[in-house]
Amino acid sequence: MKYQCIIVDDEPIAQQILENYIQQIDALQLVSKCNNAFEALNVMHKEQIDIMFLDIKMPSLSGLDLIKTLKNPPKIILTTAFSEFGVESYEYGITDYLLKPIPFERFLKAVNKILIPTTTEKINEQVTEKPVSELSYIFFKADKKIYKFLFSEILLIEGSGNYVKIHTQKEKPLLVLDKLSELQEKLPKNLFIRVHKSFIINIVHVTKKEGNMITIKDFIIPISSTFKNELDGLIKENG
Fold this sequence. Notes:
Layout: E1 3-8, H1 12-23, E2 28-34, H2 37-46, E3 51-54, H3 63-69, E4 75-80, H4 86-89, E5 96-99, H5 104-115, H6 119-124, H7 132-135, E6 137-142, E7 145-150, E8 154-160, E9 163-168, E10 174-177, H8 180-184, E11 192-196, E12 199-202, E13 208-210, E14 213-216, E15 219-222, H9 225-238
Parallel strand pairs: 1-2, 1-3, 3-4, 4-5
Antiparallel strand pairs: 6-7, 8-9, 8-12, 9-10, 11-12, 13-14, 14-15
């Protein structure tokens, strides 16, 4: 599923920055760039918009005034150079409030509030009967691009200093600037377990455990004594 997006901002440079950010995220699709609120209304009358990146201070009709006119607004992420509107803006049910200049990491954090549902939202959508591995996913930034993987696609993660190598069912692994210990906190504990100081594995893809070695497809991973009991417990729990 791609989320249909619209940018509403009277500054061309701001539009270009947001467009570039959106293009880096596969789950987003830019429908239109609008210079003012009236252009945005015309687009929304014709297209189904899921996410609006909205500037506050614009000629004729401000971003906040635009929100007031919408009966069923899309998810709204405000983009502005003025911090004084922060508290007031949340009264309009916005998703996030971004201050210009907007770093990509902050943009991604805001978008993830929409792309990655919370546990409560999943229950409300009655999708909790499906396995977590089919529902959950994670974004990685590498080579100036954003990559999205389902948790179920990840075989194992190999750590090396400040970098990790994501081994998936695809041919080539992805090298990401991240620490193994920090990445471990972002992964579901019922699927992923650390078995060695340099390896986190997806328990779903384990094909054999023999002695202090574990096999996942063509990979043979050592099991450290530090993590052996925890691994045995997870295998027993899922057995």
